[in-house]
From TrEMBL:
Keyword Transferase found: yes
Domain of life: Bacteria
Record keywords: Methyltransferase, Transferase
Protein name: SpoU rRNA methylase family protein
The keyword Zinc is assigned to this record: no
Organism the protein comes from: Nocardia bhagyanarayanae
Length: 172
């Protein structure tokens, strides 16, 4: 077997994203109750990889957090959520978006069973210790769990969000 040929950056750019980015008919990652700042930049990088936007609450520390872990040089799609995040989420749902939460509930489906998003979908991530609060859980169309074999009971927000975004985007 011959050695694999690594594709060049121009080849990769030509292969990817054939059309302009648009916000109104795709995925939005929404870590609405963030705790750790570095996770936001990492999640923003994943959003770019799958063609999604990021919706974050407007907090003084969030702009700096978005720069951590994100090494991309171009402008990315960030939606700022002002006021109560549960009201923002309710508006998204009322506007026709599907709302998928990454949370362990009695009704959660396994990540492997999560279908590809067929309409505008908001993927909600909760606080790393407390998860999605009750007012957010009430607004979910579906909750998804990521099965784990190890001793931990959850992944960090950036890892969990990345796994679910790839699945919703139909890239895995």
């Amino acid at each position: 077997m011959s050695a694999a040929r690594v594709r060049t950056r121009p080849e990769l750019r030509k292969q990817r994203r054939q059309r302009a980015h648009g916000c109104w008919n795709h995925l939005i990652a929404a870590p609405l109750w963030p705790k750790h700042s570095a996770n936001l930049g990492t999640l923003l990088r994943t959003c770019d990889a799958v063609g999604a936007c990021l919706a974050v609450p407007r907090r003084p520390w969030v702009p700096d957090a978005l720069n951590q872990g994100n090494t991309l040089r171009h402008r990315q799609c960030v939606h700022w959520v002002d006021g109560r995040v549960d009201r923002w989420l309710a508006r998204q749902r009322a506007g026709g978006s599907a709302v998928v939460g990454v949370e362990l509930t009695d009704e959660s489906i396994r990540l492997a069973d999560l279908p590809t998003a067929r309409k505008r979908t908001v993927m909600v991530l909760g606080h790393e210790l407390d998860g999605i609060p009750p007012e957010g859980l009430e607004l979910l169309d579906v909750a998804v769990e990521i099965p784990m074999v190890g001793t931990g009971h959850s992944l960090n927000v950036a890892v969990a969000g990345s796994l679910v975004l790839y699945k919703l985007a139909g890239l895995c």
